[in-house]
Design goal:
By secondary structure, this protein is α/β, with parallel strands linked by helices. The chain has helices at 27-39, 42-45, 59-73, 80-87, 97-106, 114-142, 150-167, 177-193, 206-212, 231-244, 273-285, 289-294, 299-312, 327-340, 364-382, 412-418, 428-433, 442-454, and strands spanning 220-225, 247-250, 256-260, 264-268, 317-320, 345-349, 386-391, 421-426, 457-465, 471-478, 483-485. The protein folds into two domains: 17-167, Orthogonal Bundle (DNAb Helicase, Chain A), CATH 1.10.860.10; 198-485, 3-Layer(aba) Sandwich (Rossmann fold). It starts with 26 loop residues before the first helix and ends in a 12-residue tail after the last strand. Mean pLDDT is 79; it is low at 8-18 and 490-497.
Length: 497
């Protein structure tokens, strides 16, 4: 290809020539791609899903690509002749716009190279954006207003970098079904090799794992329930079980792979890290958290607490207790944890305490939609299951049968739509306690029988599951220890409805 003369490099007149650094660009690649599009509009289809006009370094190239895009998408021909009328006239180093378009087409390369040129242009544009973010960080750090904290600047830089990362993905599109089938077979092989033969991460609760096949990668799992039902306890129990079962290996390239269990990130937006740790210690030591808070423990119980603490310290369980964070901040922190420590399960307690972008704060339904969509996108991006807890509306209390339904979810439209799995936690014992009749009456005897039947039991109702059955799983629940467990069964089978 004959070389087309470079357009003059843009420079600030006040900048000395000795200190001037040209932003990374490749004008020849831009010219080659535009030429390929002008002689064969099919070349546009090879780059249109990731390349935008602003990715071009030269302004004239941006305009040519933008107008060519509009013509091709309208089903019209984009050629030097049709484009000339949209671009006006200007001097391009001794050439008119019409002459420049004709020169691009005359010196064009084969269409087969179009995608490679497009990727080169895109990567250089990304580097220029990174330079812009770096310059902005320096300028803001020097001239920050009094009411601006360094933490805000860090979060703004993270948001900007994330925006570039999200916009910079060009690995999507169609793939051969054979590739997807191979991934499915690989998933089945890993399930066969893993303890418990589960395709997902084991929760440590056998009946629930039997029903769900474990926590599946990239799934958004909602655990919902009314207050005091134990939804936080269930999430905490699962998180601990996953972290306790963690086994990993280091690959030849130095990266780490999880063989069993997983590394867990826990966003505790409601409770402090100390409160969460107290729950876990109570669950594992068998000493009620209320006794620990009062200091009402025996020497033997205190020793159990110390032993439990020693075991817990080795677990890959990471807690973020920051309250009132946004979905963007949560996503940035989750990415950072995966990059620095590794991540196999993320827990968010709870969904309604997250905030969306400021522009949508006036509409709570839209804000919840943004949050659930963001959590689902994050689960896919990080390829980990995300457990998000959710409140239920008060309409549950108005029914005789207080077992939750999908319609009971607050702002249920987006939560129900975006979730892959929706789990409700229901304890009949809690409601029966509030209906205790007068002792000695016939009603009391019936109430006592119902209490005995419901005592120490919880129902986990799977209201939605994209890749499995719905139904109810019964678990053991010890309220003092906030501990869920498997029910002992005489037949050792799975009593799952």
């Amino acid at each position: 290809m004959a070389t087309i003369e470079h357009l003059p490099a843009r420079r600030d007149a006040a900048t000395p020539a000795t200190s001037f650094r040209v932003a990374p660009s490749n004008v020849e690649a831009e010219q080659a791609l535009l030429g390929a599009i002008l002689i064969n509009n099919d070349a546009f289809d090879r780059v249109s899903d990731f390349l935008r006009p602003e990715h071009f370094f030269e302004e004239i190239h941006r305009r040519i690509y933008e107008h060519a895009s509009m013509l091709i998408r309208a089903g019209k021909l984009a050629s030097p002749i049709t484009l000339k009328t949209f671009l006006g006239d200007q001097d391009l180093g001794g050439m008119t716009v019409g002459q420049y378009l004709a020169r691009l087409a005359a010196d064009a390369t084969a269409i087969i190279n179009a995608k490679d040129y497009g990727l080169a242009i895109h990567d250089l544009a990304t580097r220029r954006e990174l330079i812009g973010i770096g310059e902005s960080m320096v300028n803001v750090a020097y001239d920050a207003p009094i009411d601006s904290s360094p933490r805000e600047q860090i979060e703004e830089a993270e948001r900007s970098l994330y925006a570039i990362a999200e916009a910079g993905r060009y690995d999507g599109g169609f793939q051969a079904f054979t590739h997807a089938a191979a991934l499915a077979v690989d998933l089945a092989a890993k399930a066969y090799q893993r303890d418990g033969h589960l395709s997902g991460v084991a929760t440590g609760l056998a009946d629930l794992d039997f029903k769900m096949g474990g926590l599946q990668s990239s799934d958004l799992i909602i655990i919902a329930g009314r207050p005091a039902m134990g939804k936080t306890a269930l999430a905490t129990n699962i998180a601990f079980n996953v972290a306790r079962a963690y086994r990993g290996e280091t690959k030849p390239d130095g990266s780490k792979a999880t063989l069993d269990g997983g590394q867990v990130g826990f966003f505790s937006l409601e409770m402090s890290a100390e409160q969460l740790a107290t729950r876990v210690i109570a669950e594992q030591s068998g000493v009620a958290s209320s006794k620990m808070r009062r200091g009402d423990v025996t020497e033997a119980e205190f020793q159990r607490i110390v032993d439990t603490m020693r075991d817990i310290q080795r677990l890959p369980l990471y807690i973020d207790q920051t309250g009132g964070i946004s979905i963007a901040q949560l996503s940035a922190r989750a990415r950072r944890l995966k990059r620095q420590k590794g991540l196999d399960l993320l827990v968010v307690d709870y969904l309604q305490l997250l905030s969306g972008s400021k522009s949508r704060s006036d509409n709570r339904v839209q804000e919840i939609t943004e949050i659930t969509t963001g959590l689902k996108a994050l689960a896919k991006e990080l390829a980990v299951p995300i457990i998000a807890l959710s409140q239920l509306s008060r309409q549950v209390e108005a029914r005789d049968d207080k077992r939750p339904q999908l319609s009971d979810l607050r702002e249920s439209g987006s939560i129900e739509q975006d979730a892959d799995v929706v789990i409700f936690v229901y304890r009949e014992e809690y409601y029966l306690k509030n209906k205790e009749p007068r002792m000695g009456t016939p009603e009391y005897a019936q109430w006592q029988a119902e209490m005995d039947r419901a005592h120490g039991k919880a129902e986990v109702i799977i209201g939605k599951q994209r890749h499995g059955p719905t139904g109810t799983v019964e678990l053991q629940f010890e309220a003092e220890l906030t501990r869920f467990g498997n029910l002992a069964r005489e037949d050792m089978g799975h009593d799952i409805r």
